[in-house]
Amino acid sequence: MAAVSSLARRRSAGPVGSATRGTTHPNRLRRMDRWITDAHGTALRRSADPVAVDLGYGASPWTAVELLARLRRVRTDAAVVGVEIDPERVAAAAAYARDGLTFARGGFEVPLAGRRPLLIRAANVLRQYDEDGVAAVWERLCGRLAPDGLLVEGTCDEIGRRHVWVALGPEGPRTVTFATRLGSLSAPSDLAERLPKALIHRNVPGEAVHAFLRDFDRAWAAAAPYAAYGARQRWTTAVSALGADWPLADGRRRWRQGEVTVRWEAVAPRGW
To answer: Where in this protein does the record put region Disordered (predicted)?
Structure first.
C-alpha cells in the first residue's frame, strides 16, 4: 500500500487512495449525521448547491442512503454522492440510486465534475493510513469544499455507540467531537480507541488529547453522585466541569445527546 502522503500528492486520472475494509452497518453513523444536521444546518439551508459526499461508504451503501434522508429533513432538495474507490462496490450500489442519490468511483480527489460539495463525510476511512499523511489528505479534501463547506472525518465502532470526529472548514481543522451512547460508557477515556488517525497515536503523556481525556475522566469520577439521576445527568455535570479548563465549542443541548465538542487547537498533536 502506498503511503497516504504520496497518494494525496498524486495527480493522475485514476482514483486517489486505497479501498477500505468496507465494514458497514445500518444506522452506524447516526451520531455523526445528527451532529452534522445541527452544526451545518444553516449552511445547508442557505446553499445554492446543497450537495454532500459520502466518501468511502464501504461494501454496502447504507450510510449514503441514510445521509440523504437526514439531510433532507433540513433541506428537501439536498443531494448525496456516494464515492467509492472499488468499482464493484459502485456497481452494487447503483441499485440504490434515486432522486438526489448517485454513486461514483473515486477517492480523495472527490470527482464531482467541477461542483464543490457543501459537505464531505469521511467516516472510518483514514484509520488504515499512516498518521503522517493525514494532514495532506485533509488539505486535499478541504480544497474541494464549497466556501462554506464542511469536512467531517472520524471513526466509530461497528454499531455506532462510540464515535470521535474532526470537523474542518476550507481553512483546516476547527473542532473535535466525542459522542457516545451513555449507557455503554464506563469512563470518557473509553472513547480513546475511536480517536481519528490524527490523534489516536497521541493519547500518551505529554500530548494534549491525553490530558483532555485524563481531565474528563477526573470530572466523570467527581460527578459519580449524579449517576443516581441517570448517565445523562452525570455526563452533563462532568462536561460542565470540564469546560472550566478546556475551550468547549457547544452547550448543554448537545451535551444531553452524549456529545462534547472541543476546539481543535486545544487537543491538536504537538508540532501540528
So the answer is: 1-30
